[in-house]
């Protein structure tokens, strides 16, 4: 079952993030997002099997800056599936549900830094090809990707993609 995360799921989601990423950074990121203005509760989504949380995805608000203009967009992070249940389609189901929900929040584009062999199957393309830059993190260009929610947004918008402060200095 795929559903919106609720407050009583927080501790299970924390355990899931720790076991999927083997790091404290992602649980910290999720906590920071939840207590920030960039948080959209309906875009924090879990998969549940027999009362147990098996996957989690979070999208939050970010911006694209083009000269003196700022556009509201979203970023996808983190995404995690219980290690013993990976490669069964749970990650994909969470991504599709989250992208579907974006339409109701007037989000034109969703950005992420992620595995370049994983996200393109869901329609993500290289953001650099469409005139978007990322300056906050130094990453290979193929891991910086974007998904078009609003038709035409990829060609209409360009500029520097910026994560909110919640994403900075996580280590
Ligand atoms: C990445 C992750 C969320 C994928 O979730 P999942 O439920 O295993 O993914 P799905 O079953 O929906 O994957 C669908 C297809 O994507 C591919 N795939 C899955 N994981 C992949 C990975 N890590 N890299 C590349 N391709 C991957 C496979 O081809 C899979 O199809 P197949 O099983 O027929 O081969 C999960 O592996 C995970 O939690 N990893 C640890 C945390 C992490 O790295 N998160 C993402 C940060 S960018």
From TrEMBL:
Domain of life: Bacteria
Domain N-acetyltransferase: 1-150
Keyword annotations of the record: Transferase
A Gene Ontology molecular function term of the record: acyltransferase activity, transferring groups other than amino-acyl groups
Claim: rRNA-binding is one of the keywords in the record: no
One Pfam family in the UniProt entry: Acetyltransf_9
Protein name according to UniProt: Predicted N-acetyltransferase YhbS
Species annotation: Paenibacillus uliginis N3/975
């Amino acid at each position: 079952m795929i559903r919106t995360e609720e407050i009583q799921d927080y501790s299970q989601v924390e355990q899931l993030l720790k076991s999927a990423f083997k790091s404290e950074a992602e649980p910290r990121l999720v906590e920071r997002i939840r207590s920030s203005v960039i948080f959209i509760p309906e875009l924090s989504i879990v998969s549940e099997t027999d009362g147990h949380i098996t996957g989690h995805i979070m999208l939050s608000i970010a911006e694209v800056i083009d000269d003196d203009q700022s556009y509201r967009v979203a970023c996808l992070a983190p995404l995690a599936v219980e290690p013993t249940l990976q490669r069964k389609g749970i990650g994909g189901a969470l991504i599709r549900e989250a992208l579907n929900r974006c339409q109701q929040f007037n989000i034109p584009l969703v950005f992420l830094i992620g595995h370049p062999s994983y996200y393109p199957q869901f329609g993500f393309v290289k953001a650099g090809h469409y005139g978007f830059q990322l300056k906050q993190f130094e990453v290979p260009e193929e891991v910086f990707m974007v998904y078009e929610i609003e038709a035409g947004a990829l060609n209409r918008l360009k500029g520097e993609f910026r994560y909110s402060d919640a994403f900075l200095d996580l280590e």
